[in-house]
Amino acid sequence: MRIEELPSPCYVIDEGLLEKNLKILNGVMERTGSKILLAQKAFSMFKMYPLIGKYLSGATASGLYEARLGHEEMGKENHIFSPVYREDEIDEIISICDHIVFNSFSQLEKFKDKALAAGRSVGLRINPECSTQVSHAIYDPCTPGSRFGVTIANFRQDLLDGVSGLHFHTLCQQNSNDLETTLMAVEEKFGPWLSQMKWINFGGGHYITEEDYNIQLLENCIKRMKDKYGLKVYLEPGEAVAYNAGYLVTTVLDTLQNGIDIAILDTSATCHMPDVLEMPYRPPLLGSGAAGEKSFLYRLGGQTCLTGDTIGDYSFDQPLKSGDRLVFENMAVYTMVKNTSFNGMPLPAIVVLDQAGEYHIVREFDYKDFKMRLS
Ligand SMILES: *Cc1c(COP(=O)(O)O)cnc(C)c1O
User: Which top-level group of life is the source organism from (predicted)?
Assistant: First the structure.
């Protein structure tokens, strides 16, 4: 099967590129004795969990359903952090998660005994109040008034009984110098309690598989926490696991003019790549250039009625015409886990490109998937 023959739109996950990332992450684990978990919220394509489980220590979840998926499909270490747990789900969470991280002392007090009685490792999320990013405020858990993690002003040394790990998550697409800065804040504020813990979880947002990432500095940070406090170190990247390992294959359905040439695609930013609008960012598109770089400029728009459903302005060597295939890059993470059928948009099929260069359609969606969630 060739790319022209795939259903459009479809997400294509490139197994070779995914494995390349996994080998980089596994290298960090091997050299430092740390453990790396898949943060499923970025990438929950469970078809790939056996491959991911070959290289990583397990998975982490944002809630019960992701925890179940990790338990059923990966079956290795299964961690969970949620800003709050419900009474009616905590028993099931305790039955399938080996590490349970609480966001507050009240949640800890409410559920810790149950978790400990089941032999689970209990952690507490701390908030080091150290913002190291300015560009994506909605992804900054250290922003003032954030609901994430216990700040030092609200820390209760007297309630630490049974807590064996501290967890922080403050980064988003960031390099290890920001981790180093954050660790200094963690040590400065929470240092007195670190050596009474068994583990520390550095959260996600480490851009480890990105070209410019300083892996050596990450490894120094891990070793420092290990040597100074005797801690086992966990990392739980989402994006770095499948960074640049997938595509969204789309088709031009029409072109029109309104001061600028416009192409309407059989996809949608808001439905199929929501972070394009939320973050926001301009996804790379194979064979295209920035505005002004190539001769023919188009604004690429989605199929929905939302005016802002545009992907960006791109230039091409040839004019676009209906039927042309356009392939967006870096579409594995935060895409299929976040897509919606707003406007009754069909969901993209899911395809694997294996290491031999063969495409396999692993999932297709239809009208039933739209109707099923409504009544
Ligand atoms: C989002 C999140 C992650 C993963 O973040 P990435 O930016 O995808 O690496 C890990 N842990 C927690 C607690 C998160 O909220």
Answer: Bacteria
Q: Which pLDDT belongs to residue 52?
A: 99
Q: How close is the Cα of 60 to the center of ligand 1, in Å?
A: 9
Q: Distance, CA 203 to ligand 1 centroid (Å)? A: 6
State the amino acid at position 57 in one-letter form. S
Confirm if 223 and 3 have CB atoms less than 8 A apart: no
Fold of 33-242: TIM Barrel (3.20.20)
pTM of the predicted protein model: 0.97
CATH number for the 3-11+246-331+339-371 domain, one of 2.40.37.10, 3.30.499.10, 3.40.640.10, 3.40.50.1460?
2.40.37.10
Choose the residue to mutate in 142, 236, 239 for probing ligand 1, maximizing ligand atoms within 8 Å of C-beta.
236
Query: Rounded to the nearest 5°, which phi and psi values hold at 367?
Result: -55, -35
Q: Please report the pLDDT score of residue 134 as a whole number.
A: 77
Neighbours of 3 (CB within 10 A): 16
Q: In the chain, where are the structural domains located?
A: 3-11+246-331+339-371, 33-242
Q: Whose CA is nearest to atom 3 of ligand 1?
A: 204
The length of the chain in residues reads 375
Residue type at 56 in one-letter notation: L
pLDDT at 198: 98
- CB under 8 Å to 277, separation ≥6 — which residues? 269, 270, 308, 309
* Weakly modelled stretches of the chain, pLDDT under 50: none
Q: What is the tens place of the pLDDT at every residue in 326-339?
A: 999 999 999 999 99
Residue nearest atom 14 in ligand 1 by C-alpha distance: 204
The ligand 1 site (C-beta within 6 Å) comprises 39, 41-42, 81, 169, 172, 203-205, 236-240
pLDDT at 1: 78
